[in-house]
Design a protein that fits this description.
This protein is α/β, with parallel strands linked by helices. It has helices spanning 2-12, 26-32, 79-86, 136-140, 189-198, 228-240, 262-274, 360-378, 384-394, 421-428, 544-568; strands at residues 14-16, 23-25, 35-46, 58-63, 68-73, 92-101, 103-105, 149-154, 166-171, 215-220, 226-227, 245-248, 250-252, 282-286, 305-311, 329-332, 335-338, 354-358, 443-444, 450-452, 465-472, 483-485, 489-491, 501-510, 513-517, 521-525.
Amino acid sequence: MFALLASLALADDRFFLDAGPEQASLADLEARGAVHGRTGALVVALDDPHALDGDPRIARVERRRGRVVRVVPAAGVDDLALARDLHGRPGVAWVNPDLKLRLRPASIPNDPLYPDEWHLDDTEQGGRTNGIDINAPEAWETATGAGVTIAVIDSGVQLDHPDLVVTPGHDYIDDDDDPTPGTDSSSPHGTGVAGIAAARGNNGIGVAGVAWEADIYAIRLIGGDSSTSDLYDSFAEAVDAGADVLSNSWGFYGCEGVPSMATFQEMFNYAEKHGRGGLGSVVVFAAGNDDCDNSDDAMLDNRYAFVVAALEWNDVRASYSNYGENIDISAPTSVLTTDMSPGGYGSYGGDDAYSDGFSGTSGATPVVSGVVALMIEANPRITAKQIRTAICESAVRNDLELAEYDKYGWSPYYGYGRIDAAAAVNLVADTAPAAPVLTAATEAYPDRVFLSWEAAIDPDGDVTEYVVHWWLDGEDGGASDGHVTSDLRYDLTGKVAAGDVVHWTVVADDPWGAGETSVEGTLTVLEVPEAPADTGEAPTPSTCATAEGSAAAGLLAVAALLGRRRRRA
């Protein structure tokens, strides 16, 4: 009997992680320290928006972004039991309990101080010449982050800091729209992260961030209780607010973190598929500071997470930096940055708006976020996947004796090596081809219908093809398939008939995608005129003037013929 009761209790404690059969125990997660209870609600993804209609066990359904909803069970209904029952229901993609989560910043603010911003250019700052900086000044020759937004999902950001440009997002701790930091020990953290990524440069005060003309979108997620749905909402909110980069300098307690729940997969998918108009918002994550293998951390194991390990000034792994299969790249930490004023970590040079020695993988992560912002300004058409690939391809392989790089150039301690801002920006920098200028006539006969244009102006000279879209009057232009050609014209002969009115545009492509679209052209296909009837009689001049004109024309023709003959002679 006791064994039966124990097995029932265990079953009641479990929930499905995603659409598959794998389950997790709430008690196990609480023992790890990453979870400390549940909100009593569920996070559900619906393939059919009406799949839960009329279920008496549900008190209300709260719509979220995308296909995700938050389900509040009716009074007396157990949330885990309901979650298990809804699993596999038609129209329901997956169900997770809305767990209470414990997040912590991934920094160690009491580490030794390092002078100035050596991580940006150590040959100019602080006298260090060991080559471990990220070559920021050379990258700034191409881009400084202008027009790019970095979402700092953290403990909040001081909104009135003199060296930051901040747009306030949501506060998921206090549930309001003021992400000002709280008063707990983690409160200065987000302000420090924001400064490393995007403190305003060239303004005569303070410090410069890696992307010193980028804007910050602040979300407060650390400093109190947050939940599974809060994590999803914070990602989706940042994406919908136009964030190009999502910077996450936080993690769970311990190296195991939490299992791979569908909610987490969905929020990464949302950023990748909906961010930047479908190009993807880049999600940058701290590797963590427990000096352990984080390969089992489901948050970092997502293929869209770009995971950052920490480097000290001597170009080796910070002793606390986690390692393992999830590491993608490494970046400097223990750096000078903005600080909450008052109430921050300390002061630098007597100014409590700045603090030195901001360390941990928390400090390394916004370095990478800033480099991503530079790359996006340098090439706005680049995809999130292309950004991740380019950073890895352009990285510097460091600590060659101990890094254990494999044949692909990847190390479990450094990923693909130390990030190089200049190399990454130069690798992807590209200007889109200008809109082609249309040269086709506005009228044509059915036996000869051509659309033509001038070669697109492209500063990079890498136009690969032209894509023509055409449609007839009354049709939807957006429904037209693109017709690809390497020529400067497209033949419509045989595809249209007399009386048709053709609308068309053309765009030049280069290796990074489409350039600017031309203005819309219009071409009318004319009826072929009928030939006059042949009467068999020679026409008779009606007036002397006409006859004289005909005679004159004949004389001119004879004179021209004689002239040609003389030249031959």
